[in-house]
From TrEMBL:
Domain Ionotropic glutamate receptor L-glutamate and glycine-binding, chain residue ranges per copy: 437-496
Main subcellular location: membrane
Subcellular locations according to the entry: Cell membrane
InterPro entries: Glu/Gly-bd (IPR019594), Iono_Glu_rcpt_met (IPR001508), Ionotropic_Glu_rcpt (IPR015683), Iontro_rcpt_C (IPR001320), Peripla_BP_I (IPR028082)
GO cellular component: plasma membrane
Site-annotated residues for Crucial to convey clamshell closure to channel opening: 656
Protein name, UniProt field: Ionotropic glutamate receptor C-terminal domain-containing protein
Membrane topology: Multi-pass membrane protein
Organism whose genome encodes this protein: Anopheles farauti
Keyword Cell membrane: yes
Positions of the Ionotropic glutamate receptor C-terminal domain: 427-824
Keyword rRNA-binding in record: no
PANTHER family: IONOTROPIC GLUTAMATE RECEPTOR
């Protein structure tokens, strides 16, 4: 007692010295077990009060410590301390609450609310997060105050960064220096960003945690914690996670530099900065009162908060605003309805304190529109830097801007270009299957691939704004489910979150849609078709000669010569022929003598539309000519008909024209690609037929049926089709090719004795036919399904890609791509048009006729040369002396005698020269008709 009186007298004397009155204040201080920094800061504040008597404060502190998860023990401790203070007539003027969150914070708030104790709380959360203080009356709002600590404000910078950089996904990792329980919903509310907020895993699971987050399509990482925690997280990440498609943001309360052992990384580093106007005071407090614990911003916040709360209570007491009849009740007296009704305006007193702050001023809402609780905090700036780390050492730090602590303040950018470079490029992982023309390897292409789907994805990327890296799936499959329900191919990659996009000629199937999502189709209704080797019809320039067999041609030639010879014989020996009755036919216009040459010419030309010309005069010769005409007419008609039929039959030589034709024959083998959608189709159709057969068999063999019912099932024809069962069995026996190249090679290696037909997607077959002249597409498409882009189930890319594809459809961009890759492709071969029934005869089959013409013209030219030579260089004709008589002159009339003296031609006028004694040598042109004797 004497000691207490002596202490009070000493304090009174000190106050008198400075001319002020010392105000005694009782404080009930409640803290969490792990919040040691608050203990240190409050102790420094009390020490500061003691060493600065001009403040006029004397503080009596009662300390209660609780566990964040144990409300019962904390409440008992509070009630015990509070009861002791009332018993000692030292009721607390203020409850200073530095609990952070959880049941400890809620317990303290429930305690202060129920007993009406003026409280200043430094717990986490905005107004809606303070569940016990949500619906306070205006009176209670005056003395139940909450000020948000810096660690509760710092996470808000993540919201500002995401808004500024338009980040669409984020992983927020934090350690025990931050409390994020209440941030899960509010931090990124109303922002279209997929995000995960989770605490940093321990050393054993940290690398796996980052891997799992990456598999959730996250490439923007925010790490909230101490520098040690940030270092551990960065060193747990793979080197590939620091490439351009990832972004790392390290956010801490500490003010030291960032260090970590990574090979090559550029990290956005954010740390708090103190108010420039308070740096002197901060340095003084650190050195004089030894407040050097990290993080400094939190320590000085508790220091300033405690000091400001004490001064506010002192001002209330000294102003006389403190109720003189202050009512206190104990925990035992409280029944839920008897809370004391106090009118203490602690909020105004707290706002009006003029004591300078150490790290930053308090931001207190002005006016009554914005609530005090959940909107009051200490102002400070976050310094934003780009830290480049090479080989485990920080080699460069560049300032990017600052962020002023606030609930919705934007970041202040100093270097816009630099901060944009720290944004993670939206790079999606694309897996594909090479299949022309959708996907083709091209080392010269930017991504190593080209094709219809690559062009499509590039156009979508221009709209959605992303980049991608493309890889070929290892097993070369789009995705099929085995008997155990396990998937392979691209579907497996999407399920395991190893791929973002599945690209290629991937069919939309119902079972695939149960595990992945598809966009709207970019290629509608593609069916299965048949590809076979194009039958090659052998062409021949002299194909028109093969219509008749060789022996027939020889017989025709023999008949030609025999008829010509017979006609010559008949004309020579018939008394009615022209050459034997010249006098009779001397007035006829046509005077044709059928020597052997004329007979050959007549029979030849009789076979042509030109005709043979004048027929023989004698009846026997005309019968021979008529017989030859009849023979020629039949031969020509038969040749023409057979030539047309021969060419037509060669064009109709197509063994298979539909799937039914393929199923009904056994000569040609057929199979789809192993693991393809076509294989799945035939396998399932066969299984369905087998199930139908079992159902029918069970029905027909059911003993419970009556005789009448069983008779209705008795049919002669098999009621269930086994078409696909036989086809599937034939496919298994033929062997399924593992690639399209293998299938094409099998088609080319097939022969007429054992052909091979490939069943696959019509688009693939159509492209193969365009680029290979020896292949053909047979039959109509069946089992038509659309092609679409595959994404992970629930991926936001589905809606984004849907909008982009619909835009491309409206612009007719997809039709242009089809034109480019199926009609204007540079690699397609310019194949010869196959013969069609409606087409004419090709030059390859009728060109021999032109050769015959050229051969005939050539022979005619040679004959002309021979005739010219023969005429010019033949021996002189035999000449005889002419003895003219008056009888002969009268009988012959004037006869032109061809005389050739010295190689010249002389006419009848030359006879005049004979009178002059010249010798004339003439050639007899006609025998003496008087000496004609019949030759029969």
């Amino acid at each position: 007692m004497n000691t207490q009186i002596l202490r009070q007298l000493t304090a009174y004397a000190v106050v008198k010295i400075v001319g002020q009155t010392t105000q005694n204040i009782n404080i009930l201080f409640v803290n969490e077990v792990d919040n040691s920094l608050a203990n240190v800061a409050v102790e420094v504040a009390l020490n500061y009060v003691k060493k600065n008597p001009q403040l006029g404060l004397s503080v009596d502190m009662m300390y209660v410590e609780g566990n964040r998860t144990d409300s019962k023990d904390l409440l008992q401790s509070l009630c015990s301390k509070y009861g002791e203070s009332l018993k000692d007539n030292r009721p607390p003027h203020l409850l200073l609450d530095t609990t952070l969150t959880g049941v400890s914070s809620e317990t303290v708030k429930s305690f202060s609310l129920a007993l009406g104790i003026p409280t200043v709380s430094a717990s986490y959360g905005q107004e809606g997060d303070l569940r016990q203080w949500r619906d306070l009356s205006p009176t209670k709002r005056g003395y139940l105050l909450q000020i948000m600590p810096p660690a509760d404000m710092i996470p808000q910078v993540i919201r500002s960064i995401i808004i500024y950089m338009n980040i669409t996904n984020a992983a927020i990792l934090y350690d025990n220096t931050f409390v994020m329980d209440h941030k899960y919903k509010a931090l990124l509310q109303n922002i279209p960003t997929r995000h995960v907020i989770t605490s940093i895993a321990d050393d054993r699971d940290r690398a796996g945690q980052i891997e799992k987050l990456r598999n959730l399509d996250i490439n923007n990482f925010f790490v909230l914690g101490s520098l040690t925690s940030i270092k551990q997280v960065l060193e747990s990440a793979k080197n590939e996670y620091f490439e351009r498609n990832f972004a790392w943001h390290a956010i801490t309360q500490e003010q030291k530099d960032l260090t970590c052992n990574v090979e090559n990384a550029t990290i956005m580093f954010l740390r708090p900065m103190s108010d420039s106007s308070s740096k002197d005071r901060l340095g003084s407090i650190r050195t004089t009162y030894n407040l050097k614990q990290e993080p400094q911003i939190t320590g000085f916040f508790y220091f300033d908060l405690t000091l400001r709360a004490l001064i506010a209570i002192k001002n209330i007491l000294q102003s006389g605003s403190w109720p003189s009849n202050m009512k206190y009740i104990t925990c035992e007296d409280y029944d839920g309805t008897n809370t004391p009704n106090h009118t203490i305006d602690l909020k105004t007193a707290f706002t009006e304190v003029t004591e300078p702050t150490t790290f930053g001023p308090f931001e207190i809402p002005k006016g009554g529109k914005i609530p005090f609780n959940g909107n009051t905090y200490m102002k400070f700036d976050m310094d934003i830097n780009a830290v480049s780390i090479r080989g485990g050492a920080s080699v460069n730090t560049r300032n990017l801007g600052t962020w002023e602590a606030s609930l919705n303040a934007p970041i202040n950018v100093a270097n816009e270009a630099e901060i944009k470079n720290l944004t993670a490029d939206v790079v999606y992982r694309v897996y594909t299957v090479v299949q022309a023309p959708f996907i083709m390897r091209d080392p010269t292409a930017p991504k190593g691939f080209k094709g219809y789907c690559i062009d499509l994805l590039n156009k979508i990327a221009e709209i959605v704004e992303f980049d991608y890296e493309i890889r070929e799936v290892e097993d070369g499959k789009f995705g099929n489910m085995n008997e155990n329900g396990e998937w392979n191919g691209i579907v497996r990659k999407l399920i395991d979150k190893q791929a973002d996009i599945g690209l290629g000629s991937m069919s939309v199937m119902a079972e695939r849609e149960t595990v992945i999502d598809f966009t709207v189709p970019y290629y509608d209704l593609v069916g299965i078709s048949i590809m076979m080797q194009l039958p090659s019809t052998p062409s021949s320039l002299f194909k028109f000669l093969t219509v008749l067999e060789t022996n027939v041609w020889l017989c025709i030639l023999a008949a030609y010569f025999f008829t010509s010879f017979l006609m010559w014989i008949f004309d020579r020996y018939s008394p009615y022929s022209y050459q034997n009755n010249r006098e009779k036919y001397k007035n006829d216009d046509e005077k044709r003598e059928f020597n052997i040459k004329e007979c050959l010419w007549f029979c030849m030309t009789s076979l042509t539309p030109q005709g043979g010309g004048e027929a023989p005069k004698n009846l026997s010769g005309r019968l021979v000519a008529a017989t030859w005409w009849l023979f020629g007419f039949i031969i020509i008609a038969s040749y023409t008909a057979n030539l047309a039929a021969f060419l037509t039959v060669s064009r109709l030589d197509t063994p298979v024209e539909s799937l039914d034709d393929l199923s009904k024959q056994y000569k040609i083998l057929y199979a789809p690609l192993n693991g393809s959608s076509a294989m799945t189709y035939f396998q399932r159709m066969a299984d369905i037929e087998a199930k139908f057969y079992e159902i029918w068999k069970e029905m027909s063999l059911n003993d419970s049926l009556t005789a009448v019912e069983r008779s209705k099932l008795a049919v002669w024809d098999y009621p269930v089709s086994d078409k696909y069962t036989k086809m599937w069995q034939a496919m298994l026996e033929a062997g399924l090719p593992n690639s399209l190249e293998e299938a094409v090679q099998r088609i080319r290696n097939s022969t007429s004795a054992s052909g091979f037909a490939f069943l696959g997607d019509a688009t693939d077959i159509r492209y193969q036919v365009l680029t290979n002249c020896d292949l053909q597409m047979v039959g109509e498409e069946f089992s038509r399904k659309p092609y679409a882009i595959a994404v992970q189930q629930g991926s936001p890319l589905k809606d984004q890609f849907n909008n982009a594809i619909l835009m491309l459809l409206n612009r007719r961009e997809l039709e242009k791509l089809k034109e480019q890759w199926w009609k204007n492709d540079d690699v397609q071969n310019k194949c010869e048009k196959p013969d069609d029934q409606s087409d004419g005869i090709s030059i390859q089959n009728i060109g021999g006729v032109f050769i015959v013409i050229f051969v005939g013209i050539g022979m005619a030219c040679i004959t002309l040369l021979f005739e010219f030579w023969y005429y010019k260089y033949r021996n002189n004709a035999k000449v005889i002396d002419i003895v003219e008589s008056s009888e002969q002159q009268q009988h012959l009339g004037t006869i032109v005698k061809t005389v050739r003296p010295a190689g010249k031609l002389v006419k009848q006028d030359s006879l005049k020269d004979a009178a002059k004694g010249q010798t004339l040598r003439t050639r007899t042109l006609m025998p003496n008709l008087s000496k004609f004797q019949p030759r029969f």
